[in-house]
Amino acid sequence: MSAPLTAPTLTDGVITIRAHRSDDLPRVVEQCLDPESIAWTMVPTPYDAREAEEFALHLMPQGWLDGSEWGFAVELEGRYAGTVSLRNEGPGRAEIAFGSHPDVRGTGAIERGCRLLLEWGFAQLDLETIVWRAFTGNWASRKLAWRLGFTQEGTLRQYLPQRGAGRRDAWVGTLLRDDPREPRTTWLEVPVIEGDGFRLRPVRVDDAPRIQEGTAEPDAEHWLGHKPAPYTMDDARAYVERRREHEATGQAMTWAVADGDDDDRILGTVLWFNWVPEVECELGYWLHPDARGRGLATAACRLALDHVFESLGVRRVTAFAAAANTASRAVIERLGFRFYGIERSGAQVRDGWVDMALYDVTASEWAAGRRSSANPTASTANPASESSTPIASGDR
Ligand SMILES: CC(C)(COP(=O)(O)OP(=O)(O)OC[C@H]1O[C@@H](n2cnc3c(N)ncnc32)[C@H](O)[C@@H]1OP(=O)(O)O)[C@@H](O)C(=O)NCCC(=O)NCCS
Questions:
Q1: How high is the pLDDT of residue 2?
Q2: I need a labelling partner for 197 at 20 to 30 A (CA). Which of 74, 176, 260, 272 fits?
Q3: What gap in Å lies between CA 73 and CA 84, rounded to an integer?
Q4: Which residue has a Cα nearest atom 6 of ligand 1?
Q5: What is the CATH topology of the domain spanning 10-176?
């Protein structure tokens, strides 16, 4: 099948994709001056009306003429909303590219534009495989590709150039002609859960300084022997980024335990990981030193466990701590977990491998514990505050 020499006009009733026009230029300029576009694409900087004209009125039409790229303007409510295109990668293959004007992000307009583009490309260009690539860390792009049904294939190291500054790592995904155009995997959304004087919320990039500070201190450094030491800001930023990776791939969910007041300062983390659907998962936690000693780890874990048992449908949750980590074991015991043994040389502390204490709680035990703690005459939980010794378990 041969491609047309200019962009056809296609619509889904909400958005239209069509050839670029001269009245698009002011909004093309706005899009290309937007910090996200500069960070995540190869748009030239600085950027003004001349670059916009070259791109929209010369480069895009030329792509159609020579068959190198099939680009469309996306129009929403009569205004230019962004650009979507397929770049020719040889017979049967193309790369998808997309970018939106900042004021349409979150409206689904570009997703709709991509859907029209993909169906047109598979049908009219005889494509079999469409590839998506993005600089690593471009979560908005990755989420859109995920929504469209792309399978995340991995990371291409030092692959995509950007403005002559060397090559950056790139994520890569593929969509085949017969793949469903819907998510192939679970992308976990971390809910905000309000506690008494604290809240559980997603971990953010601006939490990194306190994560670094609270992980580099001597006690945490000792018990968290699997973490790098000295623990740097780069390590803390990588930790935050791994939270997103875990959520995007449905592997684990981490909450920041944050101050309930307005400053929302991170005091620690609580997470579930090692999830075997319908069977089990593991609980982990860590507190910044200035948040230890007041029962916060226990209270935060309790909220997280309620959520785990309600949403994951597991039969049991496990929690492990180095056998000598008294404070961490106290948290687990206060939560109502049962000790079931010692794994010899199971825990890595800073100076080697030590015995690990193993605990679990079943769904029915948890439900029974919650029923009796709702009864003011029963006393299952020990309200005594935690010791000031380090608090950390399984926090990967
Ligand atoms: C990529 C782009 C077209 C997506 O537009 P969009 O689908 O309208 O979506 P948004 O920008 O609102 O973000 C999409 C999703 O990513 C999520 N997201 C954005 N940044 C995120 C981050 N740092 N961590 C986790 N999720 C993030 C958003 O919350 C949103 O999810 P939701 O819809 O479930 O709330 C748009 O963000 C854009 O033009 N970015 C700059 C250019 C670009 O990166 N192009 C792609 C190059 S490969």
A1: 73
A2: 272
A3: 7
A4: 105
A5: Aminopeptidase (3.40.630)
Nearest-atom number in ligand 1 for the CA of 99 is 39
* Intervals of CATH 3.40.630.30 along the chain: 10-176, 193-393
Closest atom of ligand 1 to 138 CA is: 44
pLDDT beyond 60 at 198: yes
Mean pLDDT of 71-75: 98
Using the mean position of ligand 1's atoms as its centre, give its distance from the Cα of residue 143 in Å. Answer: 7
Enumerate residues 6+ apart whose C-beta is below 8 A from 98: 82, 83, 84, 85, 110, 113, 114, 141, 144
CATH number for the domain running over 193-393: 3.40.630.30
Q: Indicate whether this model's pTM tops 0.85.
A: yes
Read off the pLDDT of residues 31-72 as tens digits, 9 standing for 90 and up: 999 999 999 999 999 999 999 999 999 999 999 999 999 999
C-alpha 396/C-alpha 393 separation (Å) is: 9
Q: State the residue for tokens 């769904």.
A: 363
**Ligand 1 within 6 A of 134 CB?**
yes
Is residue 174's pLDDT more than 90? yes
Ligand 1: nearest atom to the Cα of 132: 48
Q: Is the CB of 100 under 6 A from ligand 1?
A: yes
* 106 close to ligand 1 (CB < 6 Angstrom): yes
> What is the 256 CA–ligand 1 centroid distance (Å)?
22
